[in-house]
Amino acid sequence: MKTEVIKLDINNIDLDKLNYAAQILKDGGLVAFPTETVYGLGANALDESAVKRIFEAKGRPSDNPLIVHIADIGQVSGLVKAIPPEAFAVMERFWPGPLTLVMEKSLIIPEVITAGLDTVAIRMPSHPVALALIKEAGIPIAAPSANTSGKPSPTSSQHVIEDLYGKVDVIIEAGCSKVGLESTVLDMTVLPPMILRPGGITPVELNTVLGKVDIDPSLVSKETEILKPRSPGMKYTHYSPKAKVIIIEGDIQSVVSKVLELQGEYAQKGAKVGILATEQTKDMYSSAEIISMGDRNEPATIAANLFAALREFDMRQVDVILAEAIESTGIGLAIMNRMSKAAGYNIIKV
């Protein structure tokens, strides 16, 4: 398949190029496009054949549901049976933005999107290109992350090109994703609403609107078995680089000491070691491939850089990545969720 790469300026969107990409979607094609979270791989959400092409391009398991992207709150009513009152409140506060709401689906939603569930996940992205594309297409767009299934999610068009060039019709290039982690997924079919996947909107932020939200037990215990995932990212190994990932958790000094110890052990075995550090610790290491994922005091910087750092270690062909844990509060909950999955829950506490 021939893949076209289209460059768009978010401050001055070329309408001819945008219209072309929108027409591809309306004709049943696949378009990778930027959002504020990560790049998405889009297809017409109401076209079952088009949606199936997403699974084929990504190599995505068919029981892993997709998120439907919209550009106007008015589109929601046609996609769901009913909108819970609490949903209106969070839509008004957080849309457009990195929040996905799970509600009971209407009959027009193909089962391939929901993996046979009676619910559908919907969000309105805030990225100007994503919004303009959905508006121009005039249809809801199903879009998981635009990467090979299981790999670190793409936060730049180059990541998408590395994974999907030759497998999709169009890749839109429009800079890097600012949030860097997938959206928060909130189940609105239960009371209190439940976070199924942590993301750019934190539990504290949701509590300010809803009073209380629960957190799915699978997010805090790797032992919880998920037979039928209710949200993307719940069941399968995700976000994984080629190298083995080990997370070291504890106070900073203990973590640094353990990383240095493990670095020496793996180096003696002939392994090429990468260290995923922070701005506070990067200068404490030497004689290794070191990447800072951001500032511990500004965890949003870590969220924005995490997936790119994991992909960079792939480029450097390291065998083992020793990753520092960060505090699981605020957006740190989402960061540690992604890191833990990337490591297969291989965590050493010191």
As for the CATH topology of the largest domain, it is DHBP synthase
Summarize the helix and strand pattern as letters.
Answer: EHEEHEHHEHEHEHEEEHEEHEEHEHE
Strand content: 15-25%
Shape: globular
The Rg value, from CA coordinates, equals: 20 Å
Q: Find the count of extended strands (DSSP E, 2+ residues).
A: 16
> Which segments are poorly predicted (pLDDT under 50) over 5 or more consecutive residues?
none
Total of helices:
11
What's the CATH H-level homologous superfamily of the largest domain?
DHBP synthase
- From the coordinates shown, what is the CATH architecture of the largest domain? Alpha-Beta Complex
Structural class comes to: alpha/beta
Description:
The protein has an 11-stranded mixed beta sheet, with helices on both faces. The protein has a 5-stranded parallel beta sheet with strand order 14-13-15-12-16, sandwiched between helices. The protein is α/β, with parallel strands linked by helices. The chain folds into 2 domains: 4-219, DHBP synthase; 244-349, Rossmann fold (3-Layer(aba) Sandwich), CATH 3.40.50.11030. It is 32% helix and 19% strand. The chain contains 11 helices and 16 strands. Helix 1 crosses helix 6.
